[in-house]
Amino acid sequence: MITIPQIRATQAELFRDAQAAALDQLERHALRFGTGFPDDTATDGVYRLRQAPGFPRGANVGWTTGFWTGMGWLAYELCGRGVFRQWAQSHHASFAARVAQRTDLDHHDLGFLYGPSVAAFRVTGEEHHRALALEAAQVLAERFLPAAGVIQAWGRIGDRADQRDQGRIIIDTLMNLPLLHWATAQTHEPRYGDAARMHLARSLALLLRPDGSSAHSCHIDLDSGAALRISTVQGHGSDSCWARGQAWGVYGLALNHRHAPGQGALEAACRMADHLLARLPDDGVCQWDLALDWRGGEQRDSSASAIAVCGLLELAAQLPPGARGQHYRERALHMLQGLAAGYAAPPGPGRGLLLHGVYSWPEARGVDEANLWGDYYFLEALARVNAGWRSYWSGGAAPQHGHAAA
Ligand code: GLY
Prior knowledge:
The chain has 13 helices and seven strands. By secondary structure, the protein is mainly alpha-helical. The strands form three sheets. The protein has a three-stranded antiparallel beta sheet, with helices on one face. Strand 4 and strand 5 form a beta hairpin. Helix 6 crosses helix 7 and helix 9 runs parallel beside helix 11. It is globular, with a radius of gyration of 19 Å.
């Protein structure tokens, strides 16, 4: 746990104020959106009810709605205000219907979507949250391809005509593996954790480069398991280092190490962290692809930095006490300072928490906007430093309300 004396007084005040402002803004969101979900990103600075072809406005589809609900649970953990608990609880029905009907779940992001159910179980102890997260783990486990030893990121499993997505893995999936480890811990069925360990080993071998950078994606032959080609969707190029992917890697590896020690995940997380930290601008908020030189005025991606802050704090917590962990902790605090001082959005109806995020630069999607994951990890980072919040994937108890500085 990070205690206030390790944080400089000016930072401590900045972080407390940022958290208080975030909680007030989230309370406005709860009243404004209710059970509806906003789009992945803001449009012209404002979140609007989600629009997806074939679904009603505000429907629970896509890969990011869990961050919205997750902010509700996190806010409740931080301050105990009933409005947050009721808001997050009110989303349970749409998550339950979604998994029962397998609505828009042909992808790997089950951990992002159903992590909040694990959070809800930790906070409330209510069995239906646990049961829902276990159903989601089952859906994720069905994406494991035994011959290739990986979890396919996108697309229907077994659709061999789908050249774009069959056998494709991405760095982001490391963040969804903890759901599988959690399911094994809950059920004592090894198959979930076994799949996660195999996927981790193949990701380390195929997506990490010797210089500590990462590739976004790799196609794998479904029968032989041979690696076919490296590529990217959201990065600058197949040989570049997409910043958000790198941040997912740092955080995902640190989380995986908790459950799968001895696979080299902790050392790999350090190498990825070092690569990212060596390429940061002075304010600690990274450009959207780390292969690009920020001095050229490249667009920043605040969301990648918010994820990286949480990843570095998680990494620091898992390293043995000493200078290395302290280094990552200090760099994380510097990055969070950059976000809180220069990227926190002014309050206003429907406004996000964190300005200047990027969803996908190559697709000109959500560029220079707030986005749901950026907001979520900004709040998580503040919760970690202000209240000693620990990830629900760590199995730790929720902090008691009142420990938060809000
Ligand atoms: N798949 C998660 C992302 O786009 O970052």
